[in-house]
Design brief:
By secondary structure, the protein is an all-alpha fold. 72% of the residues lie in helices and 0% in strands. The chain contains seven helices and no strands. Helix 2 (34-88) packs antiparallel against helix 4. The chain is rod-shaped and about 95 Å long.
Length: 188
């Protein structure tokens, strides 16, 4: 006779981790899918791009304002420097006195007058170019245009010197700041 042995059923112990297949199945049930993560990432990237563009626009605006201020300041400083140099030379106030009284000029004064006229023209052309490139405030530009007209009205002899110099340059008729100079009369 034999022994009766109860039937033994061996069950494997449950693993402490789940297989990747069961994880994928479970993730589809409770978590976002990979496609959902992709859509979310695209939305976040789009928002980041918009924020970056807004920041860039603000930086460009600030940089432009700083450039305009620096150019305007540079133009004014150059004009002041030019005036200081002219006032430091004792011949120049005397020359302008003769120009106002419409007195005759000697050769030295004629050469000095031409140098002054060229310096004024170069400075005014620099202002015009800076204005055309939006580097100089409209207020500063208008102020210098008025300065051109004031100098021309006050010193007609200087006006004729400007016209003589500008005949050699093609820009004389096209530069806005020079219109009063190119007009036929100094009071135009």
């Amino acid at each position: 006779m034999g022994f009766l042995v109860p039937a033994l059923h061996f069950r494997p112990k449950k693993a402490h981790f789940e297989t990747p297949v069961s994880w994928v199945v479970r993730s589809q049930e409770t978590f976002m899918s990979l496609q959902d993560f992709g859509v979310l990432a695209e939305i976040i990237a789009s928002v980041a791009v918009v924020i970056s563009l807004i920041y860039l626009a603000l930086q460009i605006k600030q940089s432009t304002a700083q450039s305009t201020a620096a150019a305007s300041s540079g133009v004014l400083n150059e004009f002041n420097r030019m005036q200081e140099v002219m006032l430091a030379n004792p011949l120049i106030p005397e020359l302008f006195g003769k120009l106002e009284d419409n007195d005759g000029l000697n050769r030295t004064e004629e050469a000095l007058l031409e140098a002054i006229a060229r310096r004024y023209l170069v400075h005014w052309m620099e202002i015009q170019i800076s204005h055309d490139r939006d580097l100089v405030d409209e207020v500063v530009y208008v102020s210098f245009c008025e300065d051109v007209e004031r100098i021309i009205r006050r010193y007609p002899r200087l006006h004729s010197e400007f016209r003589k110099i500008l005949k050699d340059y093609s820009v004389g008729g096209t530069v806005d700041i020079m219109r009063p100079i190119m007009s036929s009369e100094p009071n135009a």
